[in-house]
UniProtKB/TrEMBL annotation:
Residues 3-79 form the 2Fe-2S ferredoxin-type domain. This is (2Fe-2S)-binding protein. InterPro entries: 2Fe-2S-bd, 2Fe-2S-bd_dom_sf, 2Fe-2S_ferredoxin-like_sf, 2Fe-2S_ferredoxin-type, 2Fe2S_fd_BS, Aldehyde_Oxdr_Iron-Sulfur, Beta-grasp_dom_sf. GO terms for molecular function: 2 iron, 2 sulfur cluster binding; metal ion binding; oxidoreductase activity, acting on the aldehyde or oxo group of donors. It comes from the Bacteria. PROSITE patterns: 2FE2S_FER_1 (PS00197), 2FE2S_FER_2 (PS51085).
Length: 168
């Protein structure tokens, strides 16, 4: 069955006709030509496809595109317009937070989302003070919150350093 939906991708309204079984990732990449989110595992386990949907980080390979009709989707390519986007991108460059670069778009979007979550007081598994209005991002907190994003090259120390810099 076909459906026509509209997504606001990186600030631009984008209508798209697609099969109702199409994932958000495939709609972005194959239908709209947005190549920032990467297809890694296609099972929501690697984080390469992470984007921000209405400000929250999601693995786009697990969402049906039709369920996101009217949503705002921000990819790593459009993150520069977001408040933490440019500092994050700069920190990833300054700290060499990537090797091959395949996971980088998902890492950057996930980092932006987790910074917002911590600022809003959303606890993680390692959060010590559950009553805090804003969660302080120490190394353990950053590692826990970024654990859904894999880097096959092992650039984790550099990614951690980049996020730590922006979190301050």
């Amino acid at each position: 069955m076909e459906a026509t939906i509209t997504l606001r991708v990186d600030g631009e309204e984008r209508p798209v006709s697609l099969d109702t079984r199409t994932s958000l990732l495939d709609a972005l990449r194959e239908r709209l030509g947005v190549n920032a989110p990467k297809k890694g595992c296609d099972h929501g386990q690697c984080g390469a496809c992470t984007v921000l949907v209405d400000g929250r980080r999601v693995t786009s390979c697990l969402l049906l595109a039709v369920t996101q009709d009217g949503a705002s989707v921000v990819t790593a390519a459009g993150l520069g317009a977001e408040a933490e986007g440019e500092p994050l991108r700069r920190a990833f460059l300054d700290h060499d937070g990537f090797q091959c670069g395949y996971c980088t778009p998902g890492q950057v979007c996930s980092a932006a989302g987790m910074l917002r979550e911590a600022r809003a007081g959303h606890a993680s598994h390692v959060t010590a003070d559950l009553s805090a209005d804003e969660i302080p991002l120490d190394d353990a907190e950053i590692r826990e919150r970024m654990s859904g994003n894999l880097c096959r090259c092992g650039a984790y120390p550099n990614i951690l350093a980049a996020i730590r810099e922006v979190a301050r």
